[in-house]
Amino acid sequence: MEQYVNKIMKMMKDEKLFAPQGGPIILAQIENEYNQIQLAYRELGDTYVQWAAKLAVGQNIRVPWIMCKQKDAPDPVYHGGTNFGRTSVVFTTTRYYDEAPLDEYALQRDPKWSHLKDLHKAINLCKKTLLTGTPGDQRLGEETEVRFYEKPGTECAAFIANNHSTMEATVNWRGQKFLLPPASISILPDCKTVVFNTQQMDEWINILKKKLINI
Known about the structure:
single chain; alpha+beta; five-stranded antiparallel beta sheet; two-stranded parallel sheet; 5 helices; 31% helix
């Protein structure tokens, strides 16, 4: 594995494919779903994870690495795929993840598609501040917190979280009140205005309303 990783990383660096080199790769992954077998190896499983992480960081590719985040990982698949007309084994098609925001036919699967689209729009509004601002965090209550990035006097973006699984919360931050649904994060590209909340699906509701009107 080490020889393979070293070879592939060298090839990609030689071709200047990583973002700091002007290329398109902004993120790299060294492992995937290892948690499914990690416990079977006991302490050797933990040793392997640490070894793989060290191998990845040592590549010095200057983009973030992800690995083995398990159930806390971000969405790994945006578009599920099927190789139609082929089979992997008898009576089994080469089909993968038809629950993705884009399904195997490349059709939108809502509400996942609309909700994820709105999330990406909100993050895009924060991109400059996320990349250049100074990070900070603040506890607002027992189950609430805010993480922010800012360049004092110029730019600010914030993510306010309510970690309680069943109860909504109202918080005060920088002179403003914010209502947070349970188990949600609100995105504020200017640290003042909520443009997205992970529990609210406004775009999908609008789509449903239009469909009902046309029936």
